[in-house]
Amino acid sequence: MSYQSNNNTILIDNCDPLQNLTVLLKVVEDLATVNGGGFSLQLNAYPPPGMQNQGQSLTQQQVGSLALTWFQYLIIVQNGNLSYQIQYWANNAQKYSPSQLWPPGYTPNPPNTTPWLPVLPGDPIYGQFGSASGNTIPRDSEMQITLTTGEGGVTSADFSVTDPNGNMSHDSFDFTRQINAVWPISAFEVNLVGPPGGTATFTTGLTSSRGIFYYSVSPGTLSVQSGGPGAACGETQVVSPGRLPTPSTATWGVPLDQR
Question: Residue 62's domain spans which residues?
């Protein structure tokens, strides 16, 4: 399947929780942007509806809906570095008041969370794991994000970039070491876009910015969901309130194949 910029597809496994999801990007020609400012590979996953890890005693009038809506797993190529970022969103939540996140008397568990990022303390989670000269991923490299699952959902996320000589840079995050951080996912999409808060226009031409995506689950079989989030498997439609970071965007001159 080939998709033009800003035309994504959602992949599912018959609406069942996805097991051991792997996203692999094989770089066919150097992956770079016109201004050299970097980019990110984003795995955007959606939990089943109604998942809520804290705030059950709070009303929607106090903080909005705390149901989890959107999980992001990123490999970022920026400032000559490789890094990963993780965010677990409850996009329909809100502050209790302009000056207070949680209502008086409520102690968040885990601490250091907000109503719209209620799962991981200090979210977004960030880690640097390698270098990227010129903010470019050279041809014959591989970029991979693997979500390992266990009872309850995603237990770890592994991020890796392998160069043409087979040298791997990687890091991982263990959700089982966090409080109430293991959650299932039922659908996902992949975006190759700007770095967080930025935009990216990828190089074009016969020998620039080409690659092939490969997706797999084990066990299970992936298929294309008809329509966007919520069209078949009940995921919550993601919204972007003004308080959230400016979405990253990308422009592809040559679309990537997705297999």
Answer: 10-258
In a domain, 241, yes or no: yes
Verify cis geometry, omega within 30 degrees of 0, for the bond prior to 195. Answer: no
As for how many domains the chain has, the answer is 1
pLDDT at residue 232, as a whole number = 85
In tens, the pLDDT along 73-89 reads 999 999 999 999 999 99
Q: Among candidates 90, 86, 80, which has minimal Cα distance to 42?
A: 86
Q: Is residue 13 a contact partner of residue 222, using CB atoms and an 8 Å limit?
A: yes
Closest by Cα among 205, 150, 179, 197 to 30: 205
Distance CA 131, CA 238 (A): 32
**Token pair 């106090």 in the structure block, residue:** 62
